[in-house]
Amino acid sequence: MRAQFVLSEIGVGLRRNLTMTFAVIVSVALSLGLFGASLLMRDQVSTMKGYWYDKVNVSIFFCNKNDADSGANCAKGAATQQQKNDIKAELNRLPLVQNVQYESSDQAYKHYKEQFGDTPVAGLVTPDQLPESFRVKLKDPTKFAVIKSAFSERPGVQEVQDQRDTVEPLFNLLNGMNIAALVVMGLMLVVALMLIVNTVRVSAFSRRRETGIMRLVGASSFYIQMPFILEAAIAGLLGAAFACVLIVGGKYVLVNNWLAKKIQVINFIGWDSVAAVLPLVLLIGLLMPALAAFFALRKYLKV
């Protein structure tokens, strides 16, 4: 009988405050949708870093005959074969080096043509203008500074370049977008909490006569508060469920059917990452409104 009464009170409360309940559902859905998307974006950035950092190399470019005026290391002209052999031998002795590959000027020009194709830029460079290099694969890509400090001042070395510099701006952009999404999510959560508190306040005021009667007949504080808390929890859970639909839909439409086809060089996160986020979204959607209602009732419902 008590359970039936509580359920009937929940139904009455939801019907009386239908507009505000709908606003709570929408705000919770949007905020938790952004929350889930932020978590997935963080996983995506981590996956991309692991993928690309594993592929980038440290390049040691050697002086060629056109670099005599480019610095002290190249003052004597092109790097000699002995200088190249000495550097390769030292690289092979370093424990942090996984392998070393030699790239000739002709190979560098071939890669250059593949990159720029038939664009006007492709005709501005000739093979003799591109330096020879060692492509050094590190066991730990973050140890680039060790290679740079050891070889950047060596005679015959034009430059030591870390290819991570090419992809780092992309990761910084993605991290910035993630932070922006978290900020918007925080604002939406504040709006959702304010709506929940206001909805509970209005609901408690509209049913002050019923709660007064329940208090007179000896109902406990928990029993009086329970319908209000469950109303907020149900609204939050519906919002969280809608947020899950948005997350799954975004993964299927935006990632799988659009980005994955447009950008095939990126290894996008799978459904396992989405499945790990959804329970957390549902749990927050259930507990956050319930706790907000509980603390709001202590102020607005004198029992």
From TrEMBL:
Residues 56-160 form the FtsX extracellular domain. GO terms for biological process: cell division. The chain crosses the membrane at residues 21-41, 179-200, 221-254, 274-297. Residues 183-299 form the ABC3 transporter permease C-terminal domain. The keyword Phosphoprotein does not apply. It is found in: Cell membrane. The keyword Lipoprotein does not apply. It holds the Pfam family FtsX. One of its GO terms (cellular component) is plasma membrane. It is a multi-pass membrane protein. Keywords: Cell cycle, Cell division, Cell membrane, Membrane, Transmembrane, Transmembrane helix. It comes from the Bacteria. Forms a membrane-associated complex with FtsE. Part of the ABC transporter FtsEX involved in cellular division. Belongs to the ABC-4 integral membrane protein family. FtsX subfamily. This is Cell division protein FtsX. It comes from Streptomyces sioyaensis. The lineage of its organism: Bacteria, Bacillati, Actinomycetota, Actinomycetes, Kitasatosporales.
